[in-house]
Amino acid sequence: MRLATLTSGGDCPGLNAVIRAIVRTASNEFGDTVVGYEDGWVGLMEDRRRDLYDDATIDRILLRGGTILGTGRLHPDKFKAGLETIKSNLEDSGVDALIAIGGEGTLKGAKWLADNGVPVIGVPKTIDNDVNATDYTFGFDTAVSVATDAIDRLHTTAESHNRILIVEVMGRHVGWIALHAGMAGGAHYTVIPEVPFDVADICKAMERRFQMGEKYGIICVAEGALPKEGTMNFGEGEEDEFGHKTFNGIGQVIGDEIKTRTGYDVRTTVLGHIQRGGTPTAYDRVLATRYGVSAARAAHEGLSNKCVALRGEDIKLVDLADAVDELKTVPIHRYENAQALFG
Ligand code: F6P
């Protein structure tokens, strides 16, 4: 058999671990060959591909961040218009099944392809951890570790300068990174997209800290956080060419507002793509590898329209439909746990 794979959407640590596991499992267990398409769906449409061999080069990519295949984004309309090209490119290359590694957008594309007769298995990735069918996506643990390390460092400088330091982390629609990094790093307030915030509450929490003798504060803000209506001026971002929301620097805006309202010395740090780069944590390497092994086996067995997913301790195969029906947001009880520690 001949399998194909591609990585699509924003990169994340662990993509190479999945590719390695697919190639090694396909070769070791079944003698199957694997072809990799470059730059996600775009490379598949343009037939840019390379054979991936179970050799020393593939073996060593386990530790490497990013993706050796490159990644890209494609507007859903352009993708759908390319169905016949995609089908004929796969056929010309003798591909029996495709393994698409990506986040919610990629998995929607994978489902659409499978619905249109292309055998596809999905592998959920994103640092945001917002894919519904799985308990965790790989990349999330690495992003949380990076953000937690940053918060640890901010504590000492904030304390030395009697400052409030804001750290803005990624999280377009969901606050998983902010919630976990904020909790692990002992942030004194965390703001997530799922729960619109009132800056007056943040100021109150900081004032309480200072009244109790503390002289600094750390606030962890997800980039997609929004104020409660009528509480603060904030212009929402536009949409980019792929239909994704863009951001207007909510961390800086909250920082400016706190400074104006309280007079405290405030600075903002935006972590940005640092959270997505670099080597994956051990947890993400293991999760990504387990996904890759299961995806290769499922593709070889001739399954389609399925997605590998972590359920408790086990890797399961779920319907792609379940992975893309809605985003996995932070449940309110998880945020309330964090709130118990604010101030
Ligand atoms: O979806 C993953 C993610 O890292 C989001 O957290 C973030 O908003 C977005 O990608 C950034 O995308 P780009 O790399 O295109 O700026």
TrEMBL record:
Protein EC: 2.7.1.11
PROSITE patterns documented for this protein: PHOSPHOFRUCTOKINASE (PS00433)
Essential cofactor(s): Mg(2+)
Gene Ontology process terms (BP): canonical glycolysis; fructose 1,6-bisphosphate metabolic process; fructose 6-phosphate metabolic process
Main location per the UniProt record: cytoplasm
Compartments in which it is found: Cytoplasm
Chain residues that bind ATP: G10, R73, L74, G103, E104, G105, T106
Binding site for Mg(2+): E104
Keywords annotated in UniProt: ATP-binding, Cytoplasm, Glycolysis, Kinase, Magnesium, Metal-binding, Nucleotide-binding, Transferase
InterPro entries per record: ATP_PFK, ATP_PFK_prok-type, Phosphofructokinase_CS, Phosphofructokinase_dom, Phosphofructokinase_III, PKF_sf
Residues annotated as catalytic: D128 (proton acceptor)
Domain of life assignment: Bacteria
Every Phosphofructokinase domain range: 2-298
Reaction(s) this enzyme catalyzes, per UniProt: beta-D-fructose 6-phosphate + ATP = beta-D-fructose 1,6-bisphosphate + ADP + H(+)
Site (Important for substrate specificity): G105
GO function terms (MF aspect): 6-phosphofructokinase activity; AMP binding; ATP binding; diphosphate-fructose-6-phosphate 1-phosphotransferase activity; fructose-6-phosphate binding; identical protein binding; metal ion binding; monosaccharide binding
HAMAP family cross-referenced by the UniProt entry: Phosphofructokinase_III
Summary of the function given for this chain in its UniProt record: Catalyzes the phosphorylation of D-fructose 6-phosphate to fructose 1,6-bisphosphate by ATP, the first committing step of glycolysis.
Family named by the database record: Belongs to the phosphofructokinase type A (PFKA) family. Mixed-substrate PFK group III subfamily.
Name used for this protein in its record: ATP-dependent 6-phosphofructokinase
Organism: Corynebacterium stationis
Gene label: pfkA
